[in-house]
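Q&A log
Question type: sequence-to-structure
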Amino acid sequence: MGFFGILILVILSSCRTLFPNPVEEKTLSSVQSWAYQLQNIDLSGIERSAYDLVVMDYSKNGSEGTTWSSAEIRRVKESGSGKILLAYLSIGEAESHRSYWESSWIPGNPSWLGKEVSVTDGRPRRFNVKYWSSEWQKVLKNLLERMISQGFNGVLLDGCDAYIYWSDFRNGESEVLDRQVAAGRMVELIGEIASYARTRVPDFIVLAQERTKLLTSISSDVSKRDLYIKTIQGVVATGIFFSGEALQDNPFAPETDLIEYFQDLRSRGKVIFSLEYLSQTNDSALERYFREVKPYGFYPYAADRALDTLRVR
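Response status: OK
Response body:
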């Protein structure tokens, strides 16, 4: 090989070093593992992990000043063999540590803000919201714009079960809805969020977190049912194998009706991500969980209830 041939090889080798081939973005259909962390996030830990998909907070502590930069998000997405990053977005509850929260807010002021959620699960204070309110939806769209600008592949919508609360006459709120009406308004909100995002990013991923059979609650409304199926690509199903009153480490008690519901969603082409709240030291429960969930084709993840650590695979 002549001098110029060697020179060309050296140049090409240098180019590969300086400008490596970009990591091909994963698709939801290629995902085999996932993780979920909202607090104490260490981006370098997520980078080093082998997870294909990670649900995370868009901000270090919920404030506007600590949001992850687009460069940081891009770096994590390109780590390893590539990752899908979904931002957590609560659509059924307002969170007091978020940038939109105002210190003067109390239940009833603004008019769409309901009572405080009483569950103590190690996460910041949260309040029920009239999720069909146009003012609340403006709040959500502003957050969504931020997440899109950061470069997230999509969102996980939490609080999709809020329709149960707003159709319970015992909630003590100023307004109570019929169950199907409440469920239909939730589906409309999910559809509106997805449509808003996909006008900006056509392949934007939308997952719903639910365990109250939202699709069943709207089964008699064909248009709402079709909208839900068309809108979401998958769901996060929580506590369907280890159910009980404790915040975590409940006994193994599969909820057959819920498992069948999520199997039906899977048969409709939706990806099912299973989430159980189990201590990382609960070896026997963890072993059983991963063994039992496998035949269903669901993707499992076990976490502490506060979602403040990344489980090491």
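Response note: The chain has ten helices and eleven strands.
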